[in-house]
Amino acid sequence: LNPHNASAHSGMGVVNELARWNFNIAEKEYQKSIYLEPNNDGWYALVAEFYLKMHQLEDAVVYADVSHESINTHFIKVKSHILSGNQKEANDLLTQAASDEMAHPFIGENYIWLEEYDSAKYYLELALHSGHYEMLLPRFQAELAFVYEKTNLHQQSDTIINQLIAKSDTTSVGSPAFFTAWYYSWIGEVDSAFYWLEKAYNNRSPEMPWLKVDPAFNSLKDDPRYWDLYERTGHKAYDDYMASRNN
Fold first, then answer.
1. Measuring CA to CA, which residue among 9, 80, 84, 2 is closest to residue 40?
2. Span 197-239, pLDDT tens digits
3. Is 25 within 8 Å of 9 (Cβ atoms)?
4. Following DSSP, what letter does each residue of the chain receive, concatenated?
5. Are 54 and 212 in contact (CB under 8 A)?
6. Which of 3, 146, 178, 235 has a 20 to 30 Å separation from 229 between CA atoms?
7. What is the reported pTM?
8. What region, left, alpha or beta, does residue 137 occupy, with left being phi > 0 and alpha being psi -120 to 50 degrees?
9. Quick check: 29 and 17 in contact, CB under 8 A?
10. CA triplet 155, 135, 23: central angle to 5 degrees?
């Protein structure tokens, strides 16, 4: 109704990224919102996370830096440095955030990306014991189950993942199927991972854009089923779009 409404363009970016998986249009809509309201920090944060998911890592850091510092943009930069192989920069940023209790679940998550599981367990348990509300979400429940598995606390891991599986039978809120797939992919149970990814796909999980960059899914990339999902969730179309734009 109003082509100059930055919020509407940002909203269309979110819809196309998370629901339609049309990343070409999502990028254009996000950039339009910035063009219309260049002083709105929120738009830069959305674009930074989008570029992280698309593995446009330099752009992710640039847009995260433009946005005023927040927990989300801070950890966008951490993940971008991890994926770029800049572990020192990633660890420095994690150390900076350690005194912020609200950041503890995210610090734990990023230590998983670094494959430093004792540190991940420490921060996730800190968040759990402090009653951090994020720990109620399937995302962080799966992460806690995973670090318990990696630190030989198998019974605790099984208890959490079975609860997550039961939750996926009753709701798609919070994407329990996706995060169950995430867990099984990390521990190398490939067939189980694909079973739950298909369920997440059928549920139109808004987490599916992470399929490209989350290191959990590296164990699946030798399997043609991964690349089939990669195409069905819009990633190949975006890759082709980027290739044509760069040429």
1. 9
2. 999 999 999 999 999 999 999 999 999 999 999 999 999 999 9
3. no
4. --TT-HHHHHHHHHIIIIIS--HHHHHHHHHHHHHH-TT-HHHHHHHHHHHHHTT-HHHHHHHHHHSPP-HHHHHHHHHHHHHHT-HHHHHHHHHHHTT-GGGHHHHHHHHHHTT-HHHHHHHHHHHHHTT-GGGGSHHHHHHHHHHHHHTT-HHHHHHHHHHHHHHHTT--TT-HHHHHHHHHHHTT-HHHHHHHHHHHHHTT-TTGGGGGT-GGGGGGTTSHHHHHHHHHTTHHHHHHHHHHHH-
5. yes
6. 146
7. 0.95
8. beta
9. no
10. 110
Residue 132 contacts residue 102 (beta carbons within 8 Å): yes
Write the CB contacts of 162 (distance below 8 Å, at least 6 apart in sequence).
none
Beta-carbon contacts of residue 97 (< 8 Å; ≥ 6 apart): 71, 74, 75, 103, 106, 107
Inter-residue contact 27 to 10 (CB < 8 Å)? no
CA distance 188 to 211: 16
pLDDT tens string 123-166: 999 999 999 999 999 999 999 999 999 999 999 999 999 999 99
Angle 153-157-159 (CA atoms, 0-180°, nearest 5)?
Answer: 125
CA dist., res. 178 & res. 186, Å (int) = 12
